[in-house]
Amino acid sequence: MYFTVNDKELDALCGLSYLQQITYLRGIRPYMDRKTFIVGIKRGISYQSLSEILYVEPHQGIKDSGSPSRQQIRRAVKGLERAGLIAIQSCDKHLILKCLLADISYCVPNKPNTKPTQEPDTKSNANYSGNSIDCSNNLSKGDTENNTIADTPHESDLSCVFLRKAFEQFWQQYPQRRDQLKAWEAFKQVNPDETLFIKILQSLNSQIEHHHTHQAAGLWVPHWKNPANWLAQECWNDELITEVMEIENAKHTTSSKKQSAVELLWDSCKDGADHFDFNFEDNSPSESSNNIIQFKGGKTG
């Protein structure tokens, strides 16, 4: 059984407990289906079977011998899920897991074997054809015509590789990266082809530039959505609000500002005030002189 562990898997395993690392490398990863990246369908697994796989024979000087308990295996699998290595798809009757970071593009296709050995072992190679990823040079019988044909990846393998690389490119470009697992599941639901993926990246670039431009201008901009929500809501189809529309909206907001009580009273009375004449220049002085009080001695007050 041959399989290759890539750099992403090793980085995710770094820092985990020994039981979690050995559970992934010995109990899960070797039995992954290379077409679906799923473990537990073609070859059933359970917490009990994982415990049996990790059995340690008693040796002198080794204290921790035997098999880990099912509870320990359960915690180890949960820890692998939190680390982003696997996704638990079912744990009712049969344990079904999906390896999220496995990438078959790290596996080099078989090169043409121009010098076949004299006595190839065909039986051992036949036993290795199964769910595992075979990166070795499989030897067939002394037929040079068959050996000169290189193995080509399956079409489904290529689509999975493209989807994973496309998601990594989207993830690195998104401004606020949160909940990578949920974003990956949403990206798989979208399942974009090359044309749609180019549109998604172009729209995301435009939104990022629009966001930075408005921030520099001192305008209000909303917070970035969660990446999973951005994908699920197909936000790459959103239209960007131009500066002209925002200025018009600002004018409308200013003109429709709430008036005070004095302004409302004046607006209601200013039309009627036009019918009154408040010009007092024509009043005669005699009318105002009637208010003068005469005192004895000729003095006025």
Summarize the structure.
By secondary structure, the protein is mainly α. 46% of the residues lie in helices and 4% in strands. The chain has helices at residues 7-13, 18-28, 47-53, 70-82, 122-127, 144-147, 155-173, 180-190, 194-216, 227-232, 243-255, 261-273, 285-289; strands spanning 38-39, 86-90, 96-99.
Secondary structure blueprint with pairings:
Layout: H1 7-13, H2 18-28, E1 38-39, H3 47-53, H4 70-82, E2 86-90, E3 96-99, H5 122-127, H6 144-147, H7 155-173, H8 180-190, H9 194-216, H10 227-232, H11 243-255, H12 261-273, H13 285-289
Helix pairs in contact: 2-4, 3-4
Describe the structure.
- By secondary structure, this protein is mainly α.
- Among the domains are: about 5-105, Arc Repressor Mutant, subunit A, CATH 1.10.10; about 155-250, no CATH class.
- Helix content is about 45%, strand content about 5%.
- The chain contains 13 helices and three strands, in the order H-H-E-H-H-E-E-H-H-H-H-H-H-H-H-H.
- The protein has helices at about 5-15, 20-30, 45-55, 70-80, 120-125, 145, 155-175, 180-190, 195-215, 225-230, 245-255, 260-275, 285-290; strands at about 40, 85-90, 95-100.
- Strands 1-3-2 form a three-stranded antiparallel β-sheet.
- A hairpin with a 5-residue loop joins strand 2 and strand 3.
- Helix 2 packs across helix 4 (about 70-80) and helix 3 (about 45-55) packs across helix 4 (about 70-80).
- The longest helix has 23 residues, at about 195-215.
- It is elongated, with a radius of gyration of 39 Å.
- The N and C termini lie far apart (about 125 Å).
